[in-house]
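Structure (tokenized):
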């Protein structure tokens, strides 16, 4: 018998504050055993003065009403955000530390509900979170507030307990001196020495000098030397280096202008190799992204840089309670690098961005960003009517609270373009969401020195034009397109340029292109002028359809291919022999990753009709764009977005939620 619907103003039962003993599940995942608590530590609670036992902090959780089409089909309305907050604040063992939600009527109504969809950030024990989740009876999301990463390939925590640190044996200590142009010392260069065990690392001083020590190693067991300058020079990588322990080892770095494509740089403005292969250098000068708002959710943007001086808006989410105006302090330089690719100034020097006249907003989320703060950043984007958001971040497990916010953003006309990840494995979240455009990274041979570390990103997946799938790039059916992501030159503070790798660098190329499309493609002056999910879907479709095939042997590594600026703006038709969307079939098999609204795939672009799904639905014709357009989904599922249903259904079943069938049919 179907359960009688409850009123939309009901709140989580007060009994959620009690009980829960003996539960072995984690919040949001009833089937996963709880992690053993630190209370079992043999260290006593009482310690001498100046010492304290290490114990776990209270966990930080996201609590919000579940808002899904499936619930509406069951006759259930979302819980009231205000009553949820009242209930949580009344519980003595829960500390509400923040409330993330709309600040204007526009934001409140962005997802079609009359009640403001606030997310509460609260501290509580894991046991309490489990109890709260259970008492919510499927209508309350309770999940950990996960940490995010900037998708930089860096040292990771060890995956297992093992003995890798030698306790005896030889000790190798060597001095390294890093020199640049005219033998000038290079300060703040990171130097890594790799042996058989743990690497040694250090940073050069004013003399360009650093001393590194490896334990259990000799000069014959050293495997590699890697030097990463802070800016203005190419990196250096030497496998099997001949290291001296008696004399200083000198490393000479190449200026960026040593590569032909950067000749005269930075005094002379250049287009980077990535911009050239996307044909930005052939775009008429009047196409500059005027009138479009772009947000870079990252580490901030250093607008003191000459190429970033036009950036005048931002929000420091990390410090919003003290000083939200410190968005222009970029201590990591990651956000500034991304912003330079998107909208670097056209000032006759440095690097010109894709859309130098776009209005750029900086949402500072790093260092230390969490899912709750990313939700807050997207709320800012909804409120400010941002058109395109660049998300060169990820690393979290799928989050239902985050998914609801991504859906709200899409419905509000905010297009999210996300880096796929740098782990070399499956696409990371949130790039795996069906509501975003996931971007993989490719490189191109002969665009960097052979002795730079960029050469280590080359894989066996190389096509006839020298394009290769970057070794670090995540891959999978969720990949929509690829972007240049190896040896990308862009702006870093204080007023310099650096060459970096990553899907973090690939995504801004596509974000910049998206700004140009929204500003200048005729579709967005007429049919898709108004902000909506359909506008976002059309944008993503145009990007895919403009892409040229990258033949790297595995379509899941490049998606539809590398977008072409001239084709995307409707200035040229796809090149003969390189059909746009030629790699569509493998992607079409995974509907969630390709198009937020798959029905848009049946639309035509320009004078010639184009079907990006030639054979992708042979086994599941009911999921084809034609079937969707004919209303089969509306008849079977009451209008549920098919991509959303597929993605959330698989997510919930993976996490063990009992209400998964509400998002799709049994046996999905």
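Design, position by position:
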């Amino acid at each position: 018998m179907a359960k009688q619907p409850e009123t939309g103003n009901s709140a989580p039962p007060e009994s959620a504050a009690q009980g829960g003993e003996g539960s072995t599940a984690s919040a949001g995942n009833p089937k996963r055993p709880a992690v053993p608590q630190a209370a079992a530590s043999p260290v006593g609670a009482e310690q001498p003065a100046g010492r304290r036992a290490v114990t776990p902090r209270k966990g930080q959780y996201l609590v919000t009403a579940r808002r899904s089409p499936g619930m509406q089909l069951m006759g259930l309305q979302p819980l009231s955000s205000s009553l949820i907050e009242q209930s949580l604040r009344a519980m003595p063992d829960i500390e509400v530390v923040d409330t993330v939600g709309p600040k204007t009527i526009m934001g409140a109504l962005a997802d079609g509900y009359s009640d403001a969809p606030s997310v509460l950030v609260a501290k509580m024990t894991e046991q309490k979170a489990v109890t709260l989740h259970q008492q919510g009876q499927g209508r309350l999301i309770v999940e950990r507030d996960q940490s995010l990463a900037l998708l930089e390939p860096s040292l990771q925590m060890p995956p297992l307990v093992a003995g890798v640190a030698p306790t005896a044996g030889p000790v190798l200590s060597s001095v390294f001196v890093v020199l640049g142009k005219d033998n000038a010392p290079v300060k703040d260069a990171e130097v890594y020495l790799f042996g058989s065990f743990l690497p040694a690392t250090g940073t050069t001083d004013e003399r360009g000098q650093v001393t590194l020590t490896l334990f259990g190693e000799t000069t014959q067991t050293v495997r590699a030397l890697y030097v990463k300058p802070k800016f203005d020079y190419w990196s250096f990588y030497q496998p099997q280096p001949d290291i001296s322990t008696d004399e200083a080892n000198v490393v000479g770095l190449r200026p960026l202008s040593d590569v032909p494509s950067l000749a005269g740089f930075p005094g002379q403005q250049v287009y980077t190799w990535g911009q050239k292969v996307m044909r930005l250098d052939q775009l008429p000068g009047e196409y500059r992204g005027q009138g479009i708002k772009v947000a870079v959710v990252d580490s901030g943007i250093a607008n003191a840089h000459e190429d970033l001086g036009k950036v005048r808006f931002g929000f420091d989410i990390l410090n919003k309670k003290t000083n939200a105006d410190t968005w222009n302090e970029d201590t990591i330089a990651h956000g500034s690098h991304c912003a330079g690719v998107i909208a670097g100034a056209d000032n006759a020097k440095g690097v010109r961005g894709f859309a130098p006249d776009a209005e750029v907003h900086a949402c500072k989320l790093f260092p230390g960003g969490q899912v709750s703060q990313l939700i807050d950043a997207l709320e800012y984007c909804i409120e400010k009517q941002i058109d395109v958001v660049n998300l060169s971040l990820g690393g979290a497990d799928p989050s239902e609270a985050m998914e609801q916010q991504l859906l709200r953003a899409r419905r509000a006309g905010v297009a999210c373009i996300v880096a796929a990840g740098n782990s070399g494995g499956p696409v990371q979240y949130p790039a795996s969401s069906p509501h975003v455009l996931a971007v993989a990274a490719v490189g191109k041979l002969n665009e960097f020195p052979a002795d730079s570390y960029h050469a280590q990103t080359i894989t066996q997946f190389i096509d006839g034009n020298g394009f290769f799938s970057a070794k670090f790039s995540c891959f999978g059916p969720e990949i929509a397109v690829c972007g240049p992501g190896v040896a990308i030159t862009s702006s870093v503070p204080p007023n310099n340029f650096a060459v970096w790798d990553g899907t973090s660098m690939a995504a801004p190329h596509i974000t910049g292109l998206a700004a140009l499309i929204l500003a200048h493609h005729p579709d967005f002056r007429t049919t898709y002028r108004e902000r909506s999910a359909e506008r976002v879907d059309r944008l993503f479709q145009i990007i895919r359809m403009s892409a040229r095939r990258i033949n790297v042997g595995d379509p899941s590594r490049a998606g539809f291919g590398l977008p072409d600026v001239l084709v995307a703006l409707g200035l040229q038709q796809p090149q003969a022999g390189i059909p746009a969307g030629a790699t569509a079939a493998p992607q079409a098999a995974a509907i969630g990753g390709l198009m937020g609204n798959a029905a848009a795939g049946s639309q035509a672009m320009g004078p010639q009709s184009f079907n990006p799904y030639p054979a992708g639905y042979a086994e599941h014709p009911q999921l084809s764009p034609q079937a969707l357009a004919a209303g089969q989904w509306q008849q079977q599922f009451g209008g549920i977005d098919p991509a959303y249903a597929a993605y959330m259904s698989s997510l919930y079943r993976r996490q063990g939620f009992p209400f998964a069938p509400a998002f799709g049919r049994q046996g999905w």
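Reviewer-requested clarification: The CA atoms of residues 25 and 32 lie 5 Å apart. The domain at 57-145 is CATH 3.30.70 (Alpha-Beta Plaits).
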